[in-house]
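TASK: fixed-backbone design
INPUT:
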């Protein structure tokens, strides 16, 4: 008599609602591979100008990734505090958080970038003159640091609303149960509410990362040598706009597609208790 074949844990989870998604491969990786293959074909088949563009813009790619990743991490911190402030019972914290969200969210990112880069140094220098502090009087804006601050402030306002909505989506009974177990308000938020809210807001967080990656191209207007600016410099020097912006668009596309697949992978891995 043959013994029944035992299913693996993943096979068993395929009969659980929501568990079957974790044993399937993401079919859209083929699109990432197709775009990567197209870039490789262009570089190999026609090195002039496609390989030259990639070599010329590689430091711009690094700057784009740096600005995106650092801004995103800081944005998450700003969004967490902003979201908690929007739910605070303290009227001062609630008012400050609400003003931050309503004002910053209503101003375009490009305007904020220009203001941070051109206006903020003037204000700091005037304050330095008033206080007679030489470091402030001689202050000069660092393009990359200024761009990161501007993006963090702008996207932090949007993330604040995402965090607020995620926390409010958790039933109040969760907080009440945690408090009945003797947890403080902070412990209940830290160990019960926020971990559940994180799963709720993970998809919009991924969308924010992809949107931030694309909007990072705006930092080229404040003298940051990112991918867009390097592409513009190459086009001006070689007068080949079609090839230049085709390759720049493909480089942005491969980064956004890869980020989207990573976000999708994380969503699937956190969809049920492991």
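OUTPUT:
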């Amino acid at each position: 008599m043959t013994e029944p074949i035992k299913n693996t844990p993943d096979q068993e989870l395929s009969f659980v609602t929501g568990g079957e998604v974790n044993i399937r491969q993401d079919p859209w990786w083929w699109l990432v591979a197709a775009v990567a293959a197209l870039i490789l074909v262009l570089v190999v088949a026609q090195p002039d100008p496609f390989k030259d563009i990639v070599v010329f813009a590689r430091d711009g790619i690094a700057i784009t990734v740096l600005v995106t990743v650092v801004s995103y991490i800081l944005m998450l911190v700003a969004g967490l505090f902003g979201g908690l402030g929007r739910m605070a019972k303290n009227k001062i914290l609630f008012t400050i958080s609400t003003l931050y969200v309503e004002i910053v969210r209503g101003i375009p990112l490009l305007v904020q970038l220009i203001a941070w880069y051109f206006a903020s140094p003037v204000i700091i220098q005037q304050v330095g003159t008033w206080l007679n502090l030489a470091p402030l009087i001689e202050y000069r804006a660092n393009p990359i640091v200024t761009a990161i601050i501007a993006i963090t402030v702008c996207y932090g306002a949007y993330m604040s609303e995402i965090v607020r909505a995620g926390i409010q989506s958790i039933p109040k009974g969760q907080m009440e149960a945690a408090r009945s177990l003797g947890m403080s308000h902070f412990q209940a938020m830290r160990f019960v509410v926020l971990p559940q809210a994180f799963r709720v807001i993970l998809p919009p967080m991924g969308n924010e990362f992809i949107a931030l990656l694309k909007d990072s191209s705006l930092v080229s207007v404040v003298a940051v040598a990112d991918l867009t600016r390097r592409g513009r410099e190459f086009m001006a020097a070689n007068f080949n706009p079609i090839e230049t912006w085709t390759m720049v668009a493909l480089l942005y596309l491969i980064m956004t597609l890869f980020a989207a697949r990573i976000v999708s992978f994380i969503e699937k891995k956190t969809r049920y208790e492991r």
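COMMENT: The CA atoms of residues 43 and 194 lie 46 Å apart.
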